[in-house]
Write a structure and sequence with these properties.
Belongs to the inositol monophosphatase superfamily. This protein is of the alpha+beta class. The chain is built from nine helices and 14 strands. Bound molecules: adenosine-2'-5'-diphosphate (A2P) and magnesium ion (3 copies).
């Protein structure tokens, strides 16, 4: 199988990070630390990035990792308490780790996009994580702009009332699989074509999309049920598993020039594509992962079961020009 080492390593690292995040949520009631851009980060985001970057640095030392977080704030003297908490959490995975080591592992994620790179969102949906809702650990390998491996760990996700905790894994050309966390039988995953599964998913956070326009487009393609609102790339998982036919993320009227970050999409895109679905921007262009840490050549994201994709793009064109 192609990319077997990369796939195995990504699964192991994301599974360890998922356990760390769940331990934080269970044991310490995480609170938000505010970043410069006012968005939240927690002890678990830092711990997850440290654990995954450590594994990548060891196994693939020359691969850059483009991760969401960096350790500059954590290095400030005023952050001694959260740093100690991050270190304590990482020690559950890697015993006898020092804080210095943890900071260096986090900063291993400050790489830049190149011919081959990994991109990591140590917690995608930090707001969902803090609310007790959905979040994901998202890790992907990209070569020449093409996503080759994508792993999405969704510790709080379940379908049809199952035990929470699902891991999605995709390798380009080899399909998508679903496995319970932390381990269990693997099953291949396909998107759904069933008419009764014509649900659509969107963000919980209204400011991350355009909910009025999303509802109008969904209705135009015959989806009459209310949206299922979900944080994080778990939405890609819902489409890949056939629990939704469509995920719409249209530019928010409050931030029309926002460009999506690569770590918010890379793993999810491959998980859906390899399950038989399709992902483009709102104009039908493929997402371009070769340009840097943002999708500068794209606006909005449309994720579907494939079958309805062209109809959705046509409805979107009408909605935007109307
Ligand atoms: N204006 C925006 N439009 C789209 N996504 C955004 C916007 N602002 C922040 N985000 C990103 O949305 C992601 C969460 O998505 P969701 O709502 O689907 O759970 C976060 O990674 C967040 O990035 P950041 O962590 O930099 O704030
Ligand atoms: Mg994040
Ligand atoms: Mg994110
Ligand atoms: Mg964030």
């Amino acid at each position: 199988m192609a990319y077997e080492r990369e796939r195995q390593l990504a699964i192991e690292a994301a599974t360890a990070a998922a356990a760390l995040c769940e331990a934080v949520r269970r044991d310490m009631v995480p609170h938000a630390i505010e970043k410069n851009d006012k968005s939240p980060v927690t002890v678990a985001d830092f711990g997850s990035q440290a654990v995954i970057c450590r594994a990548l640095a060891e196994a693939f030392p020359t691969d850059p990792v483009v991760g969401e977080e960096d350790a500059s704030d954590l290095r400030q003297p005023a952050m001694a308490t959260p740093l100690a908490q991050v270190t304590q959490q990482v020690q559950q995975v890697v015993p006898a780790t020092s804080s210095e080591q943890v900071l260096d592992w986090i900063d291993h994620g400050n790489g830049t996009v190149g011919q081959r790179y990994w991109t990591l969102d140590p917690i995608d949906g930090t707001k969902g994580f803090l609310r007790g809702d959905q979040y994901a650990i998202a890790l992907a390998l990209v070569e020449a702009g093409d996503i080759k491996v994508g792993v999405l760990a969704c510790p709080a996700l379940s379908f049809d009332g199952g035990t929470p905790g699902l891991l999605f894994t995709a390798v380009r050309g080899e399909g998508t699989t679903l496995m319970p966390l932390p381990q269990g039988p693997t099953q291949p995953l396909r998107v759904s074509q069933a008419a009764d599964r014509l649900r659509f998913v969107e963000s919980v956070e209204a400011s991350h999309g355009n909910q009025a326009q999303q509802a109008a487009v969904a209705q135009a393609v015959g989806i009459t049920a209310d949206s299922v609102r979900m944080d994080s790339q778990a939405k890609y998982g819902a489409v890949a598993a056939g629990h939704a036919a469509l995920y719409l993320r249209l530019p928010s009227p409050k931030s029309p020039d926002y460009r999506e970050k690569i770590w918010d999409h890379a793993a999810g895109v491959l998980v859906v594509e390899e399950a038989g679905g399709r992902v483009t921007d709102m104009f039908g262009r493929p997402l371009d992962f070769s340009q840097g840490d943002r999708l500068v050549n794209n606006q909005g994201v449309v994720v579907s079961n494939g079958t309805i994709h062209e109809t959705v793009l046509a409805a979107l064109k009408q909605a935007v020009t109307a």
